[in-house]
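Help needed: design a sequence for this.
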């Protein structure tokens, strides 16, 4: 059994065939999917999917790229949604210095607000980090994010930074990039970080694993992520499936 711990089934890319995508995931033994909302539209869709399917859960938060669009009313709405029985985390939040839509100080302010919100509602945090590792880790430390813990989503950093995050009570989640032939850092993390700190995800519809790189991703393909971790660790895929599933159930407090 597998859990896709971070997927965007709420994306427009699935408007035509969502039911088929979900059925393929279930056939691939992906028994739970965690759908992440990151703005008004995608949060509403994530909640709707979680209410429609027993095996789908929702994460609600505001993406750093769009930080400039987030209002106090939006944050209050997210806080209210945190009480929903199918909402399991706050996010995805963090920092993204690749795109310049939202100034860095605006991103950092919203990041801190969402960490504090997560602490207030006692939910873990789902972290998005792109080209901002030093500031992400610093803010997590300054805001005592270890109180709730969280997950470094689609982690692409170094083993050393992964260990810093683990010390902050964070899990490390690996996605499609670990299967890419030139992905040195994710492969090192998969090899060196103990399995009890790892989760797996697709981030679908983005970042499809090899050999489907560049195509639309979907939750069924999380099995390819697990296969690559098993290969790198020289262990069975059954063990990867078992431990990463146990990790995700515990992290998101999903009832068995």
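Sure. Designed sequence:
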């Amino acid at each position: 059994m597998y859990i896709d711990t971070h997927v965007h089934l709420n994306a427009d890319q699935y408007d035509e065939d969502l039911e088929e995508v979900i059925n393929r995931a279930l056939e691939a033994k992906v028994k739970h999917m965690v759908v992440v909302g990151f703005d008004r539209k995608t949060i509403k869709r994530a909640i709707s999917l979680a209410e429609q399917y027993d095996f789908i859960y929702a994460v609600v938060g505001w993406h750093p790229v769009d930080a400039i669009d987030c209002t106090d009313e939006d944050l209050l709405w997210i806080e209210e949604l945190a009480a929903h029985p199918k909402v399991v985390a706050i996010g995805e939040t963090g920092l993204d210095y690749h795109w310049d839509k939202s100034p860095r100080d605006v991103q950092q302010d919203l990041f801190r607000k969402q960490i504090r919100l997560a602490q207030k509602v006692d939910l873990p945090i789902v972290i998005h980090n792109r080209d901002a590792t030093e500031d992400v880790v610093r803010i997590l430390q300054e805001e005592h994010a270890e109180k709730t813990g969280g997950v470094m989503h689609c982690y692409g950093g170094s083993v050393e930074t992964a260990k810093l995050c683990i010390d902050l009570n964070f899990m490390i989640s690996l996605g499609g990039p670990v299967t890419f032939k030139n992905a040195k850092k994710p492969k090192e993390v998969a090899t060196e970080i103990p399995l009890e700190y790892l989760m797996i995800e697709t981030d679908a519809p983005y970042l499809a694993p090899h050999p489907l790189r560049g195509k639309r991703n979907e939750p069924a393909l999380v099995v390819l992520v697990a296969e690559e971790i098993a290969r790198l660790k020289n262990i069975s895929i059954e063990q990867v499936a078992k431990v990463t599933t146990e990790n995700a159930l515990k992290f998101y407090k999903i009832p068995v």
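The two ends are 12 Å apart (CA to CA).
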